[in-house]
Amino acid sequence: MSERAAMQDNVLVYEPGLALFVPNDDPLRFYKAIAAIAQRSLKKEGLLVVEINEALADETCAVFAAVGLKSMVYKDFRGKSRWISAVWNP
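The structure corresponding to this sequence follows.
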């Protein structure tokens, strides 16, 4: 089943497609860009918080770790991985 088919209508109607869908061959595209910006912009102990695709929590943490961010996954009220906080500590 595609992610689009599994999403609720209220998400599809109110969120832009660009915010919801990325190419299948590069699902972490935006997180790689965010990690690069964070590496350049955050001060020591600076904090970054992002919402994530629950299926890619570990992979997203790895993207952040690759640039020196220490990250932690947070779950929503349904127990799904939903956010990552990452701290810059070079």
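The longest strand covers residues 81-88.
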